Amino acid sequence: MDLAVVLVLCLSCLLLLSLWKQSSGKGKLPPGPTPLPILGNIFQLDVKNISKSLTSLSKVYGPVFTVYFGMKPTVVLHGYEAVKEALIDLGEEFSRRGSFPVIERNVKGHGIVFSNGKTWKETRRFSLMTLRNFGMGKRSIEDRVQEEARCLVEELRKTNGLPCDPTFILGCAPCNVICSIIFQNRFDYKDQTFLNLMKTINENIKILGSPWIQVLNIFPVLLDFFPWSYSYKKLYTNTAYVKNYVLEKTREHQASLDINNPRDFIDCFLIKMEQEKHNHQSEYTFENLTITVSDLFGAGTETTSTTLRYGLLLLLKHPEVTAKIQEEIDRVIGRHRSPCMQDRTHMPYMDAVLHEIQRYIDLAPMSVPHAVNCDVKFRNYLIPKGTDILTSLTSVLHDDKEFPNPEVFDPGHFLDENGNFRKSDYFMAFSAGKRVCVGEGLARMELFLFLTTILQTFTLKSVVDPKDLDTTPAVTGIANVPPPYQLCFIPV
Question: Which N-terminal residues, if any, form the signal peptide (predicted)?
Answer without folding.
Answer: 1-25
